[in-house]
Amino acid sequence: MTGYTKAVLALGSNLGERNDTLSGAVADLVDPPEVRLLAVSPVVQTKPVGGPPGQPDFLNMVMTVETLLSPEALLEHCHAVENKHLRVRDVRWGPRTLDVDIITYGDVTSDDPDLTLPHPRAAERAFVLYPWSLIEPAATLGGQRVSELAARAADFPDLVPFDGFGDYDGAPTAGAVE
To answer: Is residue 87 annotated as part of the catalytic site, yes or no?
Structure first.
């Protein structure tokens, strides 16, 4: 492979110090010289989509990078970062300290069950689309603007901007703006 390829990564956390985990994960993801940061979205708080009931709310964000890594090597790197942040994979769509998904990798399309590109459910998830639209207003997925897809997504009404201050059970404890 020659040259850099742009990739869109979605990050989420609903266990532990969620905001600190996301910040650390961004730094870890761009630590190797083969991955360069382009942009980081604001953080949004969302209700869990799918998975077991009763989970804590997620903090979600999107980052864009350019990388020399192949799609498979980038996925391996994302999994290593998840593991560093104590990701446990015991329940599908269950609570987790960190989830990192590759949403797009250049113009690559793949039906590989280990790495389907673009991400098979991204077009219906506002918690991915909305933060992505904030850093790339003209971005498209499947030929449609991500901002328009976000507005139509079932989880869009549940998105809340996260101000970066502490929170308890999804309610800000300090620095809340009324």
So the answer is: yes
